[in-house]
Amino acid sequence: MGERLVVIGGDAGGMAAAAQARRRQGDLEIVALEMGRWTSYSACGIPYLVGGGVDRIEELVVRTPEQFRAMRIDVRIEHEATAVDLDARTVEVHNRTHDRTFKLGFDLLHVATGATPRRPDVPGIDGPHVLGVQTLGDAANLLDEAASRRPAHVCVVGSGYIGLELAEAFRDRGASVVVVEQGPEVMSSLDPDMGAMVSRAMRSEGITVRLGERLEAIEDGMVTTSGAEIAADLVVLGTGVAPDTGLAQSAGLATGPTGGLVVDRRQRTSADGVYAAGDCCESRHIVSGTAVHVPLGTHANKQGRVAGINMSGGYATFPGVAGTAVTRICACEVARTGLSEAEATAAGFEYTAARIESSTQAGYLHDSSAVTVKLLAEVVSGRVLGAQIVGGPGSAKRIDVVATALAAGMTAEEMVHLDLGYAPPFSPVWDPVIVAARQALSQLR
Amino acid sequence: MGERLVVIGGDAGGMAAAAQARRRQGDLEIVALEMGRWTSYSACGIPYLVGGGVDRIEELVVRTPEQFRAMRIDVRIEHEATAVDLDARTVEVHNRTHDRTFKLGFDLLHVATGATPRRPDVPGIDGPHVLGVQTLGDAANLLDEAASRRPAHVCVVGSGYIGLELAEAFRDRGASVVVVEQGPEVMSSLDPDMGAMVSRAMRSEGITVRLGERLEAIEDGMVTTSGAEIAADLVVLGTGVAPDTGLAQSAGLATGPTGGLVVDRRQRTSADGVYAAGDCCESRHIVSGTAVHVPLGTHANKQGRVAGINMSGGYATFPGVAGTAVTRICACEVARTGLSEAEATAAGFEYTAARIESSTQAGYLHDSSAVTVKLLAEVVSGRVLGAQIVGGPGSAKRIDVVATALAAGMTAEEMVHLDLGYAPPFSPVWDPVIVAARQALSQLR
Asked: What is the rounded average pLDDT of the residues B148-157?
């Protein structure tokens, strides 16, 4: 018998590691504990499930427990890890189905406990019609609410990506939707001037956006904020998530300034033979160099892969995150990468911010839409620090050029000369991203 | 009076230089000679004009002669430069409107004479219904043919980007269209396995594609190839273009192995005070390091800008081209950058070619389409050498990530960790480009 790897958490960060380790090391025994019913699913798909772009909840599952078992990964659903003893090398496990607790020894441990929605501490927050959006269990609850109670008035608290996507999804189902955000604009990961374009688009499609209002209380049928009373049959929490590290902290694993588990470039935690990946970890930001918590499936998958390679005797590193995010809200495509103005200032960069208007296609084509690109570059060095894009179809994925440029440490001047694809249905002759780099360059001079 | 700059050629390579020089040096006298009637236009837009995506020929004009004159650039249309005397510093100019020839002195000269369609040397090639597609004059002729004669049978000879775009445009106008290509597949800039996906898409939309056939003769109403006789009221030449360097060569400017003018990184030709930009020049390929001729408006604009900055006392360099190209043909988006297999072999690279199938969105969304990505990486170093993409909506511009990675000299491993935008409407959790990089990485090991 070879060594035993125990994986805690059956979503991307856990199962990408398990799959990678299995592929590389045939004699490793792998047990994966998942406290819910599903493995490896796309939580990012939940708004599309609610909005009708996806037919069944099962379609969001990338790989089922049965499929993992066929790969000789012993997945146990409805099994919750309740304690870890790093000295004894055991995990205490609660089998929820049979309400039975047992201990499981491990040689290697991989922690992928994910994140939990932040619940503002106000009266009524634990009411039956106040739902978070983090797990497929949450998705099932949302679908139940939508189908059985057909909420006519939905209030979304917070305006992150998933919150706004759900606002649109409930609007598409015919509900009247109000978004409450305590900051000056929706999407605090954007600068307010870019966020304002998103809230404009939402309002023009009939979604009410209330800014600068704090949630104060939730009653049945009513949300009270610092500025209004809002009718609401259903309250959706889009207030972000916090890394779920209670178990790992109790075991003695170190957490960092963001509250996430500290891992090195190989996804090793502070304890020998213990790895971690996904939303429970913090990452290094490749531009600022500081620790950040960016809960996204794409990172969970990559970190899981890296952990799996290292746990099975290989070598791989996760270099960090650029903070790239894209979404579509109403008629807007929205994207960001690197540092926003607030983040660049906090990190101590002296920068110039170039903001340009262009079009997604050659301007003379009927289908061309407007796009706004904002690009930040460091003064003196010219190094690109980040970018934000808001515009029509064909806007968002242009951010990938900047994300790649950030990974390479490119300057605005180097970006001006990038040989990006040009043809009338795809771009003006100067790609909007390059126009922004040119503008930054001229501001730097 | 300051110095005088004479620009030969009123399209992108010429006028981007003129505009930049004007902006930077107010006392420079600038005279621009254009032998046709239009300045600064998008020849790439011609297929969309023919197909109906653009309403009027004038919409393809980015800036008119009047607009340039308002910037104090003395644009003279219907003026052809017929000779250059580098010692006397004069250009001989033929005013076509008044059939008058005169000499014009210059201190600085900028050559932007563009390219001319290659015309295969076969009987009938100079017939009245055999048209190239390079200038707006050609576009006017094509529109005239389409409107007045309403060709029922169109034969496109050659299968480059513009040829195939025009094949589709005439199909959209109701013509029966045959494409004749002498190579093994359409689009020789792609590897044949990727080109085959494009010809399949064209055939499935009713365009006849004849491969491995050489053009032998053109008669009125008929094209004869090495394999067939094809009814054709109109023949469109999509056989590529050659740099138009007759004038410059006569003056003694050096040309390179591609036939294009040799320029350095600052767009200086072999003669003092003489610059060049656009389709008449050759460029350095940033991956192979060799001289290439890539006639594209995006390069003409960038090179023109660089020449204009240098001519007006500034400093700018054009680092070269990656060979990026994108287009949409029938239901296919098509893209390529860097080296194809044939090019990588010719350049002496030992490489691995990874080819993967993925989807443009999260697979569970209704609108998701298939996409194929092929990525070449150098053995031992892991350096990415090039990529090709064929797929549904949202495929082509993904090539920009690889184009940016090529500019940075990234390896496949570095590409795997790029923080590309992920959300269900834009990408699976592993972006198709990253899936290809992963596949290349595993082949390299």
From this structure: 94
Token pair in block for residue A437? 């780099």
Question: Which single residue is written with the structure tokens 């029922």?
Answer: B152
| Model pLDDT, residue A117 | 87
Which of B436, B424, B345 has its CA nearest to residue B391?
B436
What does the pLDDT look like over A211-248, one tens digit per residue? 999 999 999 899 999 999 999 999 999 999 999 999 99
* Contact state of B45 with A364 under an 8 Å Cβ cutoff: yes
Residues from chain B that touch A430, judged by Cβ atoms under 8 A, are 298, 301
User: CB under 8 Å to B179, separation ≥6 — which residues?
Assistant: B155, B156, B159, B163, B164, B167, B186, B202, B207, B208, B209, B210, B238
Distance CA A117, CA A336 (A): 22
Structure tokens at B399: 């090539």
Inter-residue contact A280 to A13 (CB < 8 Å): yes
* Centroid of chain to Cα A331: 21
> A159 and A187 in contact (C-beta within 8 Å)?
yes
Residue B423 class from Cβ within 10 Å (0-12 exposed, 13-18 middle, 19+ buried)? buried
- Residue A396 is given by DSSP the state G
Q: What is the CA radius of gyration of chain A?
A: 23
Distance (Å, rounded) from C-alpha B21 to C-alpha B396?
A: 34
Query: What is the predicted pLDDT for the residue at B127?
Result: 92
Closest CB from A42, A327, A362 relative to B362: A42
Instruction: In whole angstroms, give the CA distance from residue A251 to residue A280.
Output: 14
CA A124 to the chain's CA centroid: 27
Inter-residue contact B283 to B119 (CB < 8 Å) = no
Q: Which residues of A are catalytic?
A: 44
Q: Flag the least confident range among A215-224, B134-143, B293-302, B420-429.
A: B134-143
Residue in B closest to A325 by C-alpha:
B421
Q: Does residue B344 carry a pLDDT above 70?
A: yes
Name the amino acid, one letter, at B20: Q
> Against a cut of 0.90, is the pTM above it?
yes
β-pair type (B234-237, B153-157): parallel
Q: What is the pLDDT of residues A117-165, one digit of tens each?
A: 889 999 999 998 999 888 888 888 999 988 888 999 999 999 999 999 9
A284 touches chain B (CB under 8 A): no
Q: Please give the distance of CA A175 from its chain centroid, rounded to a whole number.
A: 26
pLDDT at A1 over 60: no
**pLDDT score for A130:** 93
**DSSP string covering A139-197, please?**
HHHHHHIIIII--SEEEEES-SHHHHHHHHHHHHTT-EEEEEESSSSS-TTS-HHHHHH
The residues of B annotated with a catalytic role in the active site are: 44
Asked if A15 and A29 count as a contact pair (C-beta separation under 8 A), the reply is: no
Contact B362 A430 (CB under 8 A): no
CA distance B25 to B21: 6
Distance from CA of A366 to the nearest CA of B (A): 6
Query: Is some CB atom of chain A closer than 8 A to the CB atom of B161?
Result: yes
Mean pLDDT, range A22-30, rounded to an integer:
96
Q: How many residues appear in chain B?
A: 445
User: Is residue A77 predicted with pLDDT exceeding 60?
Assistant: yes
Residue B237 pLDDT: 93
Please choose, from the candidates A347, A266, A366, the residue with its C-alpha nearest in 3D space to the C-alpha of residue A314.
A266
Among B92, B119, B96, smallest CA distance to B105 is for B92
Is the Cα dihedral A272, A277, A283, A286 positive or negative?
positive
Q: What are phi and psi of B173, to 5 degrees?
A: -85, 0
Q: Identify the pLDDT of residue B1.
A: 53
| CB proximity under 8 Å: B 419-438 to A | 419-427, 429-431
Q: B12: which chain A residues are within 8 Å (Cβ-Cβ)?
A: 429
Find where tokens 């790239």 sit: A324
Q: Residue B336: closest CA among chain A residues belongs to which residue?
A: A421
B244/B266 Cα distance (integer angstroms)? 20
